[in-house]
Design brief:
The complex is a heterodimer of chains A (about 300) and B (about 350). Chain A is mostly helical. Helix content of chain A is about 75%, strand content about 0%. Chain A contains 13 helices and no strands. The chains are: A mainly alpha (about 300), B mainly alpha (about 350). Chains A and B meet through helix 6, helix 7, helix 11, helix 12 and helix 13 of A and helix 1, helix 6, helix 7, helix 11 and helix 12 of B.
């Protein structure tokens, strides 16, 4: 998972290294300045670290086995022994919520990474080539956008089959247009730029110019999009599992835990649904705040 | 005026390729099924011969292009196939459930517009005050809240703790009799029948799910209103109007607000995409008998004809809604169709 997150930053390195060292430390200073000025952004980075930690080491440090049932302890409200209470089978809700982080993050990161790669590819080619290819691809994306996106995801999962992998594919497909449009616009405005022509005259092939000279320029706005999209992908995946798609019980996952807890909320056992829902909300909130923060760092003009 | 009507016709014509694309994708989704639809339709006690019979009957033995033409022909007759779970035609079931979904969606949208647009305007005119902060909090929270979770929290607070809301099961409590079906919208039907008790009962059931959906759609509308209002207020024509000595009320509403409304109307298209998706989740939470909960039941039962019918209906609904928005845009914006594009 770390590799997926690192990949874009790693590929963002070449343009940065090409710049003089002074500019680089300037960017760092600017980042620190934004973080100091906007404590909410700093908070969101902190929360992001917390979620990553939960995903990586969570399963090893939780106090109880998330799958272990204990009928003697069923439906107990939050206490010192069970921070978030226990569910109808006596499972510890806190352990389940923490362990679920990994699956939820994997689904959303994998989906966003897929749409990032496919969207970049489609967008870069159609922005660089233009012409009929561009038109055809744009119409294709229009048709994806013509569906209400969550509904399309439902249809795709129904058609491909009910599994976690297909949830990832469905979430990826509905996100592709956003990336493709973004990359297309960024590539298109640099198609005839001076540095592009210089690179071509220097004997670089079209593919090389596109991949190493033009595309890296699209990465900063892409990172903002990725961060905003991650939150949305988690919401989408949790929504799909809430209606019974993808993740199967007893696997801990936030959406399905909320769905299971929903039956108990009318009889007052709120902790079953509220804690996983709260965690889901916090995760989405973190990614949205991070997206806004990244936007401040990447593009100070678009600050709201 | 000629340019205007030509532009309107052009916009309607633009919807045609999109609809064709939607139909093609929904056909592909239908045929991409894992497993053999013929086996499913033949049932559990099927022999190889009966499966073959069903295959021929469903036209699954024909080449793909021919199958596609048959599919389109069926669609043209309003035939979306048979639901495996209930045995009834999908189109009929969707039609009987659609008003429930539409009633919920429209009430929610109206509610969120009533709150979000004034909130956005206030936040823009009183930038940096508590209204602006409230707007910012609502906007950030609104996009982060999973709809199904908001719905459950509302049920817990207003049904379990406070006891204000009726039990979250469907459109009408069982003590009331369903109003005679005229439009399928309970609020309208009950009002037409003059049955105000049923009307209040239906409204009570509607309030919580509508608020849930409205909270979700509030964020993009308020955000867009605030942003476009801010840019309109800093525009030259507003400065000119102020310099000419017009009253602040007139500057705000006639000059700034009317112009700021245009991007907001465009945002509504995107909001519809969200709201139609969120509808499914809200209907599941509140046991709302709309097409969303129908689709969820169908998904769980692997009833593909029903799911595909639902996806297609939603997509067509979305295309039509976008068309209506664009046409509404053309009446609000006097420049529509006259620009040198």
């Amino acid at each position: 998972m770390a590799t997926v997150l690192d990949a874009p930053t790693a590929s963002a390195q070449p343009p940065k290294m090409a710049q003089p060292a002074a500019v680089k430390s300037g960017a760092l200073a600017h980042t620190l300045y934004v973080l100091r000025e906007n404590p909410v952004t700093a908070l969101s980075f902190g929360m992001f670290a917390f979620f990553i930690a939960s995903a990586v080491i969570g399963p090893y440090v939780v106090p109880y086995d998330p799958l272990a049932t204990n009928s003697a302890m069923s439906l107990k409200p939050p206490s010192l022994a069970h921070w978030f209470g226990t569910d109808n089978l006596g499972r510890d809700v806190f352990s389940r919520v923490i362990v679920a982080t990994r699956l939820d993050l994997i689904i959303s990161v994998a989906a966003v990474a897929l749409s990032f790669v496919i969207g970049s590819f489609i967008g870069a080619i159609s922005g660089y080539r233009g012409g009929w290819l561009d038109t055809v691809m744009n119409r294709g994306l229009d048709i994806i956008m013509a569906f209400p996106l969550f509904v399309l995801a439902m249809g795709i999962v129904a058609a491909l089959g009910n599994s976690v992998a297909n949830i990832i594919y469905a979430t990826a497909i509905i996100n592709i247009p956003f990336y493709a449009r973004l990359v297309r616009a960024e590539v298109n405005i640099r198609r005839e730029a001076g540095f592009t022509q210089a690179a071509k005259i220097a004997g670089n092939s079209d593919a090389r110019v596109l991949a190493f000279h033009i595309f890296p320029n699209a990465l900063p706005p892409m990172m903002v999009q990725v961060s905003l999209n991650l939150g949305w992908a988690i919401l989408n995946a949790a929504g799909l599992s809430f209606i019974g798609l993808g993740v199967r019980p007893p696997t801990p996952e936030w959406g399905i835990m909320v769905a299971e807890g929903a039956n108990y909320i009318v009889s007052g056992e709120w902790w079953l649904a509220v804690f996983p829902g709260l965690w889901l909300m916090l995760a989405v909130f973190t990614f949205n705040l991070m997206g806004d923060g990244l936007r401040d760092i990447v593009d100070p003009r678009r600050r709201t | 005026m000629a340019g205007r009507s030509a532009a309107i016709i052009g916009r309607i014509a633009q919807a045609v390729p999109v609809i064709i694309g939607v139909v093609v994708i929904s056909f592909i989704l239908t045929r991409a099924l894992p497993g053999d639809p013929a086996v499913q339709f033949a049932g559990l006690a099927a022999t190889p011969e009966s499966i073959e019979q069903v295959r021929v009957k469903l036209g699954l033995d024909k080449p793909m292009p021919e199958q596609f033409l048959i599919y389109v022909g069926q669609l043209a007759h309003g035939d979306l196939g048979q639901s495996i779970a209930t045995g009834r035609p999908v189109a009929e079931e969707l039609a009987s459930r659609l008003p429930a979904s539409l009633e919920l969606t429209l009430v929610a949208l109206v509610l969120s517009c009533i709150i979000a647009i004034p909130l956005g305007v206030l936040a823009a005119t009183r930038q940096g005050t508590w209204v602006d902060q409230l707007c910012r909090i609502l906007v950030t929270a609104g996009v982060s809240l999973p709809t199904f979770f908001t719905g459950l929290v509302l049920i817990y607070v207003f049904y379990y703790l406070l006891g204000w809301a009726p039990s979250p099961l469907g459109r009408l409590d069982f003590v009331f009799i369903e109003p005679d079906r005229v439009t399928g919208f309970y609020l309208i039907d009950a009002a037409l029948a003059g049955d105000w008790e049923t009307w209040t009962g239906a409204l009570k059931q509607l309030i919580l799910p509508a608020i849930t959906l409205a909270l979700f759609t509030l964020a993009p509308i308020a955000r867009m209103t605030r942003a476009s209002m801010l840019s309109a207020l800093s525009a030259d024509y507003v400065r000119t109007a102020k310099a000419a000595g017009l009253g602040s009320r007139q500057v705000l509403f006639t000059y700034a607000f009317r112009n700021a409304l245009l991007p907001v109307v465009t945002t509504l298209g995107m909001v519809f995409s969200f709201v139609l998706g969120a509808n499914v989740l809200v209907e599941k939470v509140f046991a709302w008998p709309g097409i969303g909960s129908y689709a969820v039941e169908a998904l769980v039962a692997s009833d593909y004809a029903a799911v595909q019918g639902f996806v297609l209906t939603m997509a067509l609904l979305f295309v039509v809604l976008n068309l209506i928005i664009d046409l509404a845009y053309s009446t609000i914006d006097p420049r529509f169709g006259t620009g040198a594009r």
